[in-house]
Specification:
Blueprint: E1 5-10, H1 14-25, E2 30-34, H2 50-58, H3 61-66, E3 71-72, E4 74-78, E5 104-107, E6 121-122, H4 126-139, E7 143-146, E8 148-154, E9 161-167, E10 170-181, H5 188-192, E11 196-198, E12 204-212, H6 216-219, E13 229-233, E14 240-245, E15 250-258, H7 259-265, H8 269-277, H9 281-289, E16 291-292, E17 297-299, E18 304-306, E19 310-311, E20 314-316, H10 330-352, H11 361-383, H12 385-393, H13 398-405, H14 415-428
Parallel strand pairs: 1-2, 1-10, 2-7, 4-13, 10-20
Antiparallel strand pairs: 3-6, 4-5, 8-9, 9-10, 11-18, 12-15, 12-16, 12-17, 13-14, 14-15, 19-20
Helix pairs in contact: 1-2, 1-4, 1-10, 10-11, 11-12, 11-14
Amino acid sequence: MTVDFDVIVVGGGPAGSTTASYLAKAGLSVAVFESEIFPRPHVGESLVPATTRVLLETGAMPEIEAAGFPKKYGASWTTPQMYKEISAATMVLDFDGLDFDGHAEVAFGERAQEGVDRVFTYHVDRGKFDLILLKNAESSGAKIFQNVRVQKVDFDDPDRATVTVRMGPRSLDFTSRVVVDASGRHTFLGRQQKLKVPDEHFNQYAIHTWFEGLDRKALAKSPKEIDNIHVHFLPISDTWVWQIPITDTITSIGVVTQKKNFGELNKDREEFFWEFVRTRPDLAEELKKSERVRPFKAEGDYSYSMDRVTGDRYVMVGDAARFVDPIFSSGVGIAMNTARLACEDIVAAFKADRYDAAQFAEYARLQKIGTRNWYEFISIYYRLNLLFGVFVQDPKYRLDVLQLLQGDMYEEHPKALAAMRAVINEVENDPKHAWRPFLGTIRASEPS
């Protein structure tokens, strides 16, 4: 039975365009249905090094390099004054007498990474970045349809899937052997198949904007950190601010906290933003000297999972499969690397001419490992972010933590997570522990 395309991809963001590029380069016929018209603004403006491999393999890297995005050599974390009063020497575990002053930083070049040929990644304007990836998919041979909304997918026919889309005033049907859901937080198939599960622990909320003229030097501990992504902890439980260079003069700033905090304060976005930022006077002072150049935008209902991410004739990638608070710039990296892993199984399925869920089992396994590791990493981070700073700075654990920060998360039982979990348990079980007052309120379950 003939089909219109071998693969139909729902969504043209980084997950969808990466999927389309890999599959088209493998010789498959691919259509991408994207509901918006690119370029469009999008949150998630800082990459992890694991994206480099994908950009090189899909052929998008030359255009990324030509775009002139700021280079990102590492990441930095700053803390309120109260954190600086605590020394790592108070821990039972041996941290070599390391004194933690509330500041932590990593440089990506400290650890070699498979498929990565440089010591930096990029901060990106997502409008431009996503358009480059979508155009790359098109130049690789994929058919791109923008301003087209997918309405439903019918899997009743055992030989093909039927995708119904809205094009202007008309609804049209297209058929394919496989459907890839890359619809992001719209979670198209997750909602249609009733697979989406809200996260019971994470319910974060973000308000973000762009500022022109922010003095990054004033907020960096050393010159080498000026263009790092900065995460500024606030003296409010489970709350932080991102600082991401977009151009030489424009910086993205976002406040992330629990959604309940926004509801309880009953303030508009601008009032909410400044009320939280003022709890870090150093940051607030510099922001007041700069000019806001974009409206405040909100992102809510952050975290969810799926009962399964594959099935007969379908695969979910990126945020369509799972989303957890993006405190480590994880979103784009997960989108592009889950696409990479899924495409390996999809290409093999076409070689075997079989498209049932069993053909995508390896992707499902790796996706589960990666999201489990990432979920635990973020859970530990929120439970005691002071601990994270200590681990980053300690030579015994630094490279193990950096592995996860680089986006290499598909390894069973990373040892940095086991060590961090042991310390968390120690603090939780000792009411008199010096770090006990710094425990956050988010307490996620042990990973399955």
